[in-house]
């Protein structure tokens, strides 16, 4: 389980390290940095997919994603006696992302190309440093693999000796995707597959043109797609090989004993007391459809190590919040769950009844801080 997440230099997250739990709920006012925290974790996962640089470009490039304030705040800036202004930089421009658990930690440092770097894409960031280590905190004795510029070296776990595995890695490639193999880079291979398994849901479509409302050609689907377009197939897969009883319980809990089925064209059908025929997905309300999408994601027969949900309560009636909390708690038995939420009822239920970790974000001078949080140890790899 991931228990520490660290971000530095990303949008309003100048320097944030947070402790995560089995269920973590992130809250805060509009503009406090919740979406940035969500996107930073998703951006971190892109390193294992060989999409990190493209994802940064899609956000407007490195310059657009970097922290826009001063490197440090003076005492006068904090108390308002002096204006906020740029000070002399003591460190290079950087966007840093990392996480750790009981077993492994990983960090990556992105920066601007050097002045002598000849490139047809001068605005692309470069991966300056990567590090993989044993345990929570980076230290020289626990280091397993490191990348500095184009060079990557890994430590043999049996002898402790270092072996250089690359001297020509491209500045846009991660060592996870280029140097992971069962012989010299087994730990990198394990890390890559772990991060590739993370799932993010923030765009489950429920509008009247949503793919989930239409008939489809069914196929074995143990993992719901990011937009939920294969809902019928995902639910049928759960009914066939997954937690059939858990799905039935989640639907009955939310909709007063209702049941669901999937017809021959893989349309979802819901049967409710008092109705003479089932309602097809095209007839369901946005809230009802969204709950079914969340159930399909959370009850996946192939649960991920980490699942991150951005505002899952959107479109849900308040009566559906308690069933959703129970569904999240059920899913947390198999996966670590992070939720970014505005719903006070959902947050309170998860914290009070499910012992969820609460991360409250606030803004001070444009910087996101974690309110009332104890310090979390973290060490970044040096360039």
UniProtKB/TrEMBL annotation:
**Species whose genome carries this gene:** Sphingomonas immobilis
Every ATPase AAA-type core domain range? 23-347
Please indicate which superkingdom the organism of origin belongs to: Bacteria
The protein, known as: AAA family ATPase
Coiled-coil intervals, chain numbering:
none
Q: Name the Pfam families for this protein.
A: AAA_21
């Amino acid at each position: 389980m991931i228990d520490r997440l660290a971000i530095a230099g990303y949008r309003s997250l100048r320097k944030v390290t947070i402790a995560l739990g089995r269920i973590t709920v992130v809250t805060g006012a509009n503009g406090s940095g919740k979406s940035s925290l969500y996107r930073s974790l998703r951006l971190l996962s892109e390193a294992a997919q060989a999409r990190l640089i493209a994802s940064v470009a899609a956000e407007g490039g490195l310059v657009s994603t970097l922290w826009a304030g001063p490197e440090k705040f003076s005492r006068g800036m904090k108390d308002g006696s002096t204006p906020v202004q740029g000070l002399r930089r003591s460190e290079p421009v950087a966007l840093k992302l990392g996480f750790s658990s009981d077993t492994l930690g990983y960090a990556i440092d992105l920066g601007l190309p050097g002045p002598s770097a000849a490139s047809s894409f001068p605005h692309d960031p470069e991966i300056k440093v990567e590090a993989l280590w044993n345990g929570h905190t980076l230290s020289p004795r626990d280091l397993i693999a490191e990348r500095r510029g184009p060079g990557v070296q890994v430590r043999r776990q049996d002898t402790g000796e270092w072996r250089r595995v690359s001297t020509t890695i491209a500045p846009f490639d991660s060592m996870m995707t280029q140097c992971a193999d069962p012989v010299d880079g087994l730990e990198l291979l394990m890390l890559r597959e772990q991060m590739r398994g993370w799932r993010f849901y923030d765009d489950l479509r429920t509008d009247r043109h949503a793919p989930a409302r239409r008939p489809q050609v069914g196929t074995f689907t143990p993992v719901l797609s990011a937009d939920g377009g294969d809902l019928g197939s995902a639910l049928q897969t759960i009914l066939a090989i997954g937690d059939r009883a858990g799905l039935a319980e989640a639907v009955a809990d939310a909709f007063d004993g209702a049941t669901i089925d999937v017809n021959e064209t893989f349309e979802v059908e819901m049967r409710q007391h008092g109705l003479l025929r089932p309602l097809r997905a095209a007839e369901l309300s946005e809230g009802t459809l969204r709950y079914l999408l969340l159930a399909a994601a959370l009850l996946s027969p192939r649960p991920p190590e980490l699942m991150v949900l951005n505002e899952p309560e959107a479109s849900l009636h308040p009566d559906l919040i308690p069933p959703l909390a129970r569904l999240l708690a059920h899913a947390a038995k198999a996966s670590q769950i992070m939720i970014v939420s505005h719903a006070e009822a959902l947050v309170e239920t998860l914290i009070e009844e499910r012992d969820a970790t609460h991360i409250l974000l606030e803004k001070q001078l444009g910087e996101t801080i974690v309110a009332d949080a104890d310090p979390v140890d973290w060490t970044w790899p040096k360039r």
